[in-house]
Write a structure and sequence with these properties.
This protein is mainly α. The protein folds into 2 domains: 64 residues, Winged helix-like DNA-binding domain superfamily/Winged helix DNA-binding domain (Arc Repressor Mutant, subunit A, Orthogonal Bundle), CATH 1.10.10; 154 residues, Up-down Bundle (Four Helix Bundle (Hemerythrin (Met), subunit A)). Helices cover 68% and strands 3% of the residues. It contains 11 helices and 2 strands. It has a two-stranded antiparallel ribbon. β1 and β2 form a beta hairpin. α1 packs across α3. The longest helix has 25 residues. The chain is elongated.
């Protein structure tokens, strides 16, 4: 009795490796193969697709580059567990290559046009548990006002919760790489005069707006918060003599 296969022979058009990669990727996305599963070997895949082992090998390299599979020498090819690191690590490398030292300023400016409307959405959709969580993170920031690293940790968790409360599942996915990168970049700017204290005050105001369900006020406070953050980044750059930014 023939066993159903998720793969089908493909037409011999170039590039074959891309067609093989797409079929394997679709099989993974459709959960024919789950994280941790071992894919069939090169010989078997080549036979199923009706292509050469070279085309299969190149397809597997493409899948590995996407973070979908792990090629283990002497063992085989395994489906990986997708996580934010699959996005964050390449994104971090891209920022370093494209933005260099100015990466922090670019991040803040992206946040400036994204997070104010997200804050308004979150006010409209948040639960009482979300508000309690935001209040607890603001209290932790105030408690650790003289410890920039702990302050930053609570700060990022605060903003991450707002993104998650906005009622749109795409928002936290889009913003998570930025949140994870913030810890790598903002510790120096947090040591600028009054930056930490001002951030604590803005977060206090945001908690108040969430408690009162005032979406417009939350958006405006978030805008002012990130506008000041942009100023602090520029001040930091000036203090270290870095001027290659606009």
């Amino acid at each position: 009795m023939a066993v159903n296969s998720p793969f089908a022979k493909i037409e011999r058009e170039e590039p074959l490796s891309h067609k093989v990669e797409r079929q394997i990727r679709e099989a993974i996305q459709q959960k024919v193969f789950l994280p941790g599963d071992k894919l069939p070997g090169e010989f078997e895949l080549a036979e199923k697709f009706g292509v050469s082992r070279t085309a299969v090998r190149e397809a597997l390299r493409l899948l590995s580059g996407r973070g979908l599979v792990d090629i283990r020498k002497g063992s085989g090819v395994y489906v990986t567990e997708m996580s934010m690191s699959n996005v964050v690590d390449p994104f971090y490398d891209l920022l370093e290559m494209k933005c260099g030292e100015a990466a922090l300023l670019h991040i803040v400016r992206v946040r400036l046009f994204m997070e104010p409307p997200v804050a308004a959405m979150a006010v409209r959709h948040c639960t009482d548990e979300d508000i309690d969580y935001l209040r607890s993170k603001w209290e932790q920031m105030a408690q650790h006002k003289d410890d920039p690293l702990k302050n930053i940790e609570s700060d990022i968790k605060f903003h991450r919760r707002i993104a998650g409360a906005a009622g749109n599942p795409l928002i936290p996915i889009i913003m998570e790489p930025i949140f994870q990168l913030l810890g790598k970049f903002i510790s120096s700017t947090y040591r600028q005069s009054h930056a930490g204290k001002l951030a604590i005050e803005y977060h206090r105001q945001l908690v108040e707006h969430f408690e009162k369900r005032n979406a417009d006020a939350a958006a405006e406070t978030m805008r002012r918060h990130l506008t000041d953050a942009e100023k602090h980044v520029i001040q930091y750059f000036n203090s270290i003599g870095f001027t290659e930014f606009e």
